[in-house]
Design a protein that fits this description.
The structure is a homodimer. In chain A, about 25% of the residues lie in helices and about 25% in strands. Chain A is an alpha+beta fold and about 575 residues long. An 8-stranded mixed β-sheet of chain A has the order 6-9-10-22-21-20-17-11, with helices on both faces. A 5-stranded mixed β-barrel of chain A has the order 1-2-3-5-4.
Chain lengths: ~575, ~575
């Protein structure tokens, strides 16, 4: 054994013990001729003391930062006044008796310290230095532990982890599949899975009852900060369940996860119909840490002199607004910026009201009648210092704009009422019309079942866009964490839905053949969910970018600066695969 | 909740309870007008009773096998004499009160029964039916549970699970890499990892201290029964360790795994130098469940009249044999077959001796002198009924032949002395000469360190093939379960080894750049191992083929009969990826 202890565990109880520590030279300083080395490993830091009389003094003095050493010595109490109560090993130091240099180090590209700002490209190129920093180390350890919390919870609820293939068939949303040429079957390709969806449903047909997997999913799409070409999903599926059974399992899992992270969250989670979410918050993933409810005030403006609003009323549109309260003081220029944001997203304009010294000021003051002001004060519950924003448009378009407005207001409010606001958004529409493809498409997942009471609508053309489904999203603080549904377990209904989506028999066979076929052999009712694991960890740790919680992520150009993947490959290799690059 | 219980849990304690069960109709029979339905799920079977007076009798009578139903009713004790003590639910039955048909089923392609023999192609095509069978179900559940045993053990030993990329760079043994064209970076390719080797070493350089992952590895090779294009590996790496530290962790893990499987295995495992294994057993993965030691008998034949042996002695060759004992009676035709097997592998011939009625009979009887027979009897400890086989060749070639001979003898012996024979084979040669490539290559892994005491040989050209390394294999019952080593943590030594392997500076940079670079920034001494998870499960369950313990394996042609992967893809998709198929 090279070491008797790690650098994070020695304390006064070890006083007098001979120990052997291994780690990295974090720093060293010479204090009145005595050398103090801070030795670092994953678990912490320990101070090593080298007296000038020590035969290793010279070697010790020449140690560079990030050198790897083995230090043997005796644990002793730090002298009075030198203890550091902030770290677990702060009351002791190790009096060096033997020193072995295990490896040297070049000058690191950046210092291994938290406070040093380094651009992300450099951090990723030298990820092995970046991970030595406290925060990245903690993120990865935390991620590892949460994975185990999730697994233990699911195992204790009778789930079995089943590994599904990564080399599989190009399927449903094929366009974003990564392809892998097959050498043994020239001209043919495997595809990397966008999710184990069909396999997990097949496992339910197989009678596996409850399946889960921390599954790697792949999607060849243009990247955003919260996306990667490959990402990890807590993927689960259960037989003989309804929506609530799946929700119960997920809520129990989140309770465990957040307990481990130090938070006691309340279950059951809030629950909202998709329609209600859109109406109330203008988005299917409202951030409910904040109130900021959307109010409809069309009625107040029915006789308004403000032309735009009057037109809205006359054209059967809608006027809605939000009281941003006094959480933030909106200057004129800030309101202009907000207006710009909304306009650039397609809104026609933004009306504001403020109450200052008991008086209402507004961008449309000159059009506002006393009675209208009173009604607005009442409707929005306007108090001293509050700012209210109002938008108008037709009933469909306004949803998006008012959702954006609400998010902008939230961005400026740093005092959420709740730390963690979980929400189930349920009963998404089953189908939506894709004008450009001239066909219906599944809003989320082509395998989602309609609500049983809405099944009859599958036969009514005019009702197709109104079919509510068993599709549910899990939302946390305005972030979509996961998406799932109860699936079609009856073959004839699944086939009917595929046909409504414009697939021919042949296409159904080619794209979904194995699943449709399997449903014909006694598929049980089943449902499940996929929860973004990277995103879950990022949200808990407070990051916008999931790259902060992935050991070796790719940049937004899909490049790994450390390995330099993707790279060119030899002609010989391409020949073996019977493919060539198109000029 | 659709069900109150599973089909595996009701017993006399539940007598009188109203229950609701869901599952598949395993079978039904009409016994004197009363209908008995065996309902099956993952957890077991339960008998449902339907009286002729029951309003659901007709529906029940028309249920097909594999229909999915929900049965509500009351638990009652089976009538005297009808109990089945062999199953947990065998003392009760459920008296049907309500029946709901959740799904119908086509006639399955094969019956869901253990004893039905089905060819593998059909099993894989209808894997969802195959997995409903008891054995496959058990295999997958067992695999899932072992995965968790492994993880719990490693977590409790301070390992962190870190996910490494699946889209990475084509590296070392590039020729067998799967390639993935990058759409965002046209003309460039990702590669699927053959193992996370470089990433796990990078994690050690990152200070992660102890890493593990149940990692998916990919290798585009021609398949054998124990190989798949993708397979799962228990991959681990540790910092500040020597060979024995890694062995201790692995032995502890195996102890836990086998305890879960119901076996108490002994640790530490046996331990053998590579050289000794080759000499004693003619293979680097001897099956030590059986004795069958290889004896050198060259000395006995130094004056033989048998020409072939005399030539062997004269040309400084070696004569070795094995006493196959009386574990199996070798007929003449069987010995002929054995001889054929050896000859087809390159051996020159096979000599046999038998003792029957106290007398020695042999294929070379007429050449054997009395004294030689006596010496052979003594050397091989020949007893009544024993058969001895003897081979001769030069000292290098014989290793392979005698290894094959020993395996053939073992195949015919159905009574191993031990159930589980673990073995560490250690100190493989660091380098071997590849005549066809005119260069040295790593015998196992280019990152393996030489034994510290052999380091000096790196500078002696004539010693290069004699350098012993810190490479170890874990062998169980003659199967190589895993392979690992202590790695080169010093950059200059790693570079020296790459150069000995004939790589130029440029090639080193291209192939191993990130790792070599990382070693320069304070890499700690580290080592690890990768253990084939599919193979481990297969060996414990007693299978030769790992396909029996994989949910959705591919055939030996790399095809998935269920999904029909790999498949042709559209011109549009290839265009987007800027590749085309070569005619």
């Amino acid at each position: 054994m090279m070491r008797t202890h790690t650098c994070g565990e020695l304390n006064l109880k070890n006083e007098g013990q001979k120990v052997s520590l291994c780690g990295w030279v974090d720093s060293k300083r010479n204090h009145g001729g005595v050398l103090f080395i801070v030795l670092r490993d994953l678990y912490g830091i320990t101070q090593i003391v080298v007296e000038p009389s020590n035969k290793h003094f010279n070697s010790a003095e020449n140690l560079g930062n990030e050198y790897v050493i083995k230090a043997e010595g005796t644990v002793r109490k730090r002298p009075e006044g030198n203890a550091n109560k902030n770290i677990p090993t702060g009351e002791i130091e190790v009096y060096l008796e033997n020193l072995e240099i295990l490896n040297t180090s070049k000058e690191p590209a950046f210092a291994i310290a938290e406070y040093i700002n380094v651009n992300e490209e450099t951090r990723l190129k030298y990820r092995y230095l970046d991970i030595r920093r406290e925060t990245m180390k903690k993120n990865l350890v935390f991620r590892s532990k949460i994975a185990q919390v999730v697994r233990n919870y699911l195992y204790s609820n009778n789930f079995n982890e089943v590994e599904t293939p990564i080399l599989t068939k190009s399927t449903p949303e094929g366009a974003r599949d990564f392809l892998v040429p097959s050498r043994i079957n020239p001209g043919k390709f495997y595809a990397l899975p966008q999710s184990p969806q069909m396999f997990k449903q097949i496992l339910m047909v197989s009678g596996m009852d409850r399946y889960f997997q921390l599954a790697r999913n792949f999607r060849d799409e243009d990247l955003r900060s919260d996306r990667q070409l490959e990402h990890t999903q807590i993927d689960l599926e259960m037989s003989f369940v309804n929506e609530r059974d799946v929700a119960l399992i997920v809520e129990g899992m989140m309770k465990e996860v957040f307990k481990f992270a130090g938070y006691d969250i309340e279950t059951p989670f809030m629950d909202m119909e998709y329609e209600e979410a859109m109406l109330k918050y203008g988005t299917d993933k409202p951030d409910l840490r904040y109130d900021y409810e959307i109010k409809e005030v069309t009625e107040i403006f029915k006789n308004t002199e403000f032309k735009i609003f009057r037109q809205t009323v006359e054209s059967n549109g809608t006027i809605r607004g939000i009281n941003a309260k006094n959480a933030h003081q909106y200057s004129r220029s800030e309101i202009d910026k907000l207006t710009e944001t909304l306009k650039s997203n397609g809104a026609k304009g933004l009306v504001w009201l403020k109450m200052k010294d008991g008086k209402i000021d507004s961008s449309i003051s000159k059009f506002l009648k006393e009675m209208e002001v009173e009604s607005l004060k009442k409707s929005f519950d306007i108090k001293e210092g509050d700012t209210v924003f109002i938008l108008s448009d037709d009933k469909k378009n306004i949803l998006n704009y008012i959702g954006i407005l609400r998010n902008e207001i939230i961005k400026r409010d740093q005092n959420p009422k709740k730390k963690w606001a979980f929400l189930w958004v349920r009963h998404f529409p089953l189908l939506e019309w894709k004008a450009d493809e001239n066909r219906y498409d599944a809003t989320h997942n082509p395998f989602t079942a309609p609500l049983p009471e809405e099944l009859y609508k599958l036969d009514k053309k005019e009702e197709l866009e109104n079919i509510k489904s068993c599709q549910y999203d899990l939302v946390l603080n305005g972030v979509e964490l996961g998406s799932g549904s109860v699936r079609n377990h009856r073959r004839e209904i699944q086939e009917k839905i595929f046909k409504l989506m414009g697939y021919s028999e042949k296409e159904i066979y080619e794209k979904f053949g194995m699943l449709v076929e399997a449903l014909g052999y006694g598929a049980p009712p089943h449902g499940g969910i996929g929860i973004g694991f990277d995103r879950l960890i990022a949200v808990i740790c407070g990051y916008d970018s999931i790259r902060e919680v992935i050991a070796f992520p790719k940049t937004t150009s899909g490049i790994c600066p450390m390995t330099e993947a993707p790279s060119e490959v030899g002609e010989k290799q391409l020949n073996e695969l019977k493919i060539q690059i198109k000029k």
